[in-house]
Amino acid sequence: MRGSGAIIDWADRKTPDSSRRLTLADAREIEQRADDVIGVHVRRLGYAEMLPKFPHLAKPALFRNTSSLHRFVGNMMWPVTRRIMMRMYDITPQAAAESRSKLEGELDWLDNKLSDDRPYLAGDRFSRADLAVASLLAPFARPEQMPIYRDMTAPDALAADVERWRDRPVMRWVASQYRSHRTRLGQP
What we know:
By secondary structure, this protein is mainly alpha-helical. The longest helix has 24 residues, at 27-50. The chain is globular and about 50 Å long. The chain has helices at residues 2-14, 27-50, 55-63, 68-88, 95-113, 128-141, 147-150, 156-165, 169-181.
């Protein structure tokens, strides 16, 4: 989301109507926490469960929607890329458990934040905080509007996480955010 944050900053500067801007009070703090903790551990958990034993599941997702040249180069470089990714994300035998535990804590924090039935994480309208959290948790919430996640093949441990977290308030909230704020392809 770091790149998305810069895009949101630019769009907010270009939007004359302040009621349409995505930056609200407290939104940046929540977005930062989402980027620094949730995003890091969503990626690390996914890679920790896939790269060591199921690299064939990670590779297609990384090269989906790329040009044939990028896919060709990606396939050629995959053994090296895989090793670099494992080093970069500190993929050790304990990595999945560590990241799963961190995510559980963040999900508890978000469930608590949403316990008053608020529709948004910061303020009274959709903000950059909602965008960050919903997009980072979408691989586990698997909203209908994101078939890439719904159709993704995952190792048993990740599928169990999806199932275990499915009924959490924050996961239902993510699905609701996608229903409310993301239009389906070809539909208004």
